[in-house]
Amino acid sequence: MKVLIVGGGGREHAITYAVSKSKRVEKIYAAPGNAGIAELAECADISVMDADRLVAFAKEKEIDFVIVAPDDPLAAGVADAFLDAGFKTFGPRKNAAIIEASKAFSKDLMQKYNIPSAASVTFDNADEALKYLETSDMPVVLKADGLALGKGVLICNDLDEAKDGIKTIMIDKKFGDSGNKVVVEEFMTGREVSVLCYSDGKTIKPMTSAQDHKRAGDNDTGLNTGGMGTFSPSPFYTDEIADFCQKNIYQPTIDAMRQEGREFKGVLFVGLMLTEKGPKVLEFNARFGDPEAQVVIPRMKNDIIDVMEACADGTLDKIDLEFEDNAAVCVMLASDGYPVSYKKGFVISGLDTFKDKEGYYAFHSGTKLTDEGVVTNGGRVLGVTALGSNLKEARENAYKATEWIDFENKYMRHDIGKAIDEA
Ligand code: AMP
Ligand code: GLY
Asked: What pLDDT sits at residue 223?
């Protein structure tokens, strides 16, 4: 079959890698793809948001299966455009992707269906939010309602910070229209774990767990980023916790969405906080995480097309989802200065070293192919991922592999997976 993958980051590179291993796939296209994806797929320079051109391209190339991977096009209805044109498509419709695109929606859903999450109140008026904060416990968490590249969440330690936060989100509109509403949420403490689940709208099957490192600097200092590294599995996510989450979070969420007329087909990413009072939902995303995908996908035993097709067809109950009994660590190589300002265009050396090494991957996040070779083209540049028989070995392998790569202004965290030592 012919597959079209919409997207062009490290997550899409990991998906393309898995699709390229499928025996059922004869040709892969990506839009827009990137320099790494281009080694496995034919890339077309079409924006992920340009539904008309994407659908026209799929018709021209007689595509059999479409994968829409990033959040923005899913929230904008790009999966709907493919589905309505008759293409078998992996990824939720817009009316289901809202579970990520509106935090107010997802909080309402969880409250209505008793899905464990932090207590919260939503406001569309700054004065009312400010009044409410006067009597709130501190710290408190403020969340801009809409998509904000993972940056619309402010943790405020005292009332002054919280007041400033409301101003930033609702009055100065730092996150644009995302800040028309704000969710004011109870601050929770505990270990964070991400569980990505496949769903066909009725059945939901969790993948192996992962943990992201969102802050830019070592020891979780500095600004929030899209993710500086991940490891999988999380040693803190026990079988008992997994059972609790399946019964009280994953299945109830998919059932609730169906009941609301918003059947969810695709990947439901559940961000969890393991609190003293049990697991609670931090956030839902309507897609694979980036860089969670880079550690979860290489550990999956199944043919990814079989699983994704079952999600589209509503036959996920027939799939036995299996992961290797190993571990993976991904260290993000970024451009120094990310996430604020950074330079692009530096030549990357060492990529060939990965070619003949099994269990080592350099997933491209922000790269570009030029006459000089592959150059840096974004804040996050490469997700260097390695497998190992356990987390410690995977971490050693991943850090060893980061030394194979060189480019000017190369920056990374040195403590990805450090929490493993405390397990
Ligand atoms: P989100 O985009 O909702 O996952 O939030 C980004 C990050 O903010 C999370 O990964 C947590 O580290 C933190 N966070 C979000 N909500 C809370 C909360 N209620 N309590 C404590 N930390 C939170
Ligand atoms: N790594 C977090 C996310 O993809 O949302």
From this structure: 86
Indicate which residue's Cα is closest to atom 7 of ligand 1: 153
Closest residue to atom 9 of ligand 1, CA basis: 282
| Per-residue pLDDT at 150 | 63
Distance CA 77, CA 63 (A): 19
Contacts of 86 (CB under 8 A, 6+ apart): none
CB-ligand 1 contact for 153 (6 Å cutoff): yes
Q: Is the CB of 283 under 6 A from ligand 2?
A: no
pLDDT less than 70: residues of the chain: 149-150
Sequence length of the chain is 423
pTM of the model: 0.95
Q: Degrees (nearest 5) of the Cα angle 339, 345, 349? A: 100
Q: How far apart are CA 379 and CA 341, in angstroms?
A: 8
For residue 364, list its beta bridge partners. 382
Round the CA-based radius of gyration of the chain to a whole number and report it.
21
Read off the pLDDT of residues 23-58 as tens digits, 9 standing for 90 and up. Answer: 999 999 999 999 999 999 999 999 999 999 999 999
The residue whose C-alpha atom lies closest to atom 4 belonging to ligand 2 is 289
**To test the ligand 2 pocket, which listed residue (211, 269, 283, 284) has its Cβ within 8 A of the most ligand atoms?**
269
DSSP per residue over 108-167, as a string? HHHHHTT--B--EEEES-HHHHHHHHTT--SSEEEEESS--TT--EEEESSHHHHHHHHI
Number of H-type helices and E-type strands within the chain: 13, 22
Beta strands 2-7 and 27-32, pairing class? parallel
212 in ligand 2 pocket by Cβ < 6 Å?
yes
Mutation pick for ligand 2 pocket among 143, 196, 212, 330 (CB with most ligand atoms within 8 Å): 212
Q: What is the pLDDT of residues 49-70, one digit of tens each?
A: 999 999 999 999 999 999 999 9
Q: Which amino acid is at 421?
A: D
Question: Which residue owns the Cα nearest ligand 1 atom 6?
Answer: 153
| Alpha carbon of 90 to ligand 1 centroid (Å) | 27
In this structure, the residue with its CA closest to atom 2 of ligand 2 is: 289
**Pair of tokens at residue 385:** 């991922």
71 close to ligand 2 (CB < 6 Angstrom): no
CA nearest to 286, candidates 6, 5, 9, 92: 92
